Amino acid sequence: MSSTSEWAASEAARRRTFAVISHPDAGKSTLTEALALHAHAITEAGAVHGKAGRRGVASDWMEMEKTRGISVTSAVLQFAHRGCVLNLLDTPGHADFSEDTYRVLAAVDCAVMLIDAAKGLEEQTRKLFDVCRHRGIPVITFVNKWDRPGREALELLDEIEREFRLKPTPVAWPVGDAGYLRGLIDVRRPGQMLRYARTPGGAREAIEEPVSADRAALEDGADWGKAVEELDLLQIDGAVHDQEAFLACRTTPVFFGAAISNIGVRLLLDAIVDLAPPPGPREVEGGGVRPVDAPFSGLVFKVQANMDPAHRDRIAFMRVCSGIFERGMTVTQAASGKPFATKYAHSVFGQDRSMVDIAYPGDVVGLVNATALRVGDTLYAGQSTVFPPMPTFAPEHFAVARPVDLSRSKQFRRGIAQLDEEGVVQVLVSDLRGDQAPVLAAVGPMQFDVVSARMAGEFSSPVKLETLPYRLARATDTAGAEALNRSRIVQGEALTRIRDKAQLALFPDGWQAGSFEREFPTARLDHLIAAH
Length: 532
Ligand code: GDP
Fold this sequence. Notes:
Shape: globular
Strand order of the largest sheet: 18-17-23-14-15-22-19-20
Strand content: 25-35%
Bound molecules: guanosine-5'-diphosphate
């Protein structure tokens, strides 16, 4: 083994690349700040993510984001904890979300599922969890807002087990009901309770004081007794952390806390270091894997244009999968077989960028003005390799796009083609509709807003969007597509997706899809990967 591959392997072993998945308002920004604070990446919470009224808006870059106060794009935060390097990839935190979120999950090795103690599992948590399950990403659960009245801890565990078929294995257990938090029991160190002195506003690390079982019993009698009893019950039930079962996505280690007061955050951070898997060998097309100590390879999981309105540039986010990335190295783009020079490599957090000179497996590099790169592209050095394509999710929203000004149809076509390549939306065409009226397909309707904003601002071709009454897409074949377009009974339409030439059959609902299946029993109608 060469010294370079040993170096890559040892750096990979101390990387943890993860995302926080949650429903909006569960506390993702607050938790991100708290994690970074504990890991000492920043000096004061609030400087990382901040929303309106808080300090700093580092991750809000688009005009749309500013006006709505939501994070449309994904950035990366890197920090160190106990000798490990943690890469936290931000997933957009809006209920009305897009394919981007899913792509981020293609670049992580683990996810932290954040749950609001009072609300339990919510819609977006469910959707994102499904993607994790589909991709085999292990999930750590953090029940947040335990400083406020909420549900029973055992009830929340039941909900996770019932709905996600995932056995919760508590690692930090609350003493006191939601809203009456006395402290936490670190299940790995029983016989004591961690008590927290509050730090208002969460601007500093919470002070953690270990309290012996005897003292806890004396001072927090009933709550301590209940917590110990609950933990005993859980142990009898086999709710005990097992690393193998966790990595196989059969169990989820569970933590309780309050991100806003930094309670339970250190335990979570330790768990990310101790339990979350480091980057491992990655499957490649045609079978086999690329080990982390192989020569450099990377996966482009996201392409973002106009991160900096002053420069109108375009950044391709690449996760290093194997080997060592050095800025300036020339690598090969697998799709074209062409060389690609990595002169402009940055680490990116929101609008803040700094040159990155070297990156290891698990790290994310922003390649600036890499116009040739597409989402799903593999870059490599040495032996050629191609990672499997990014999953394309079943669109649920459809709209016909037309140029407002017909004299700008060239710009219109160029813009739509660009947005298709970047994966902002899926573009569907048919002979019937022609190329001046492509159908845009999206997982979340907010993707259409991005199209409107960018077509007007960047391609100088404002668009009119006309929503189509379809909500369901299935994959079909040429015969099925023809049958559907001929049918006078079924409401629906077949179009071709430009990205992969797939024939998609669109229907207003499952009932119409069912009628089509009855009318043409031989037509192929396959489920696409559902976003939920
Ligand atoms: P996001 O939309 O998931 O990023 O959520 P935010 O981090 O913006 O939090 C949403 C709201 O919940 C904000 O008002 C936070 O102050 C509040 N919040 C976050 N964590 C906690 C917590 O641990 N306890 C309480 N009581 N409020 C919290």
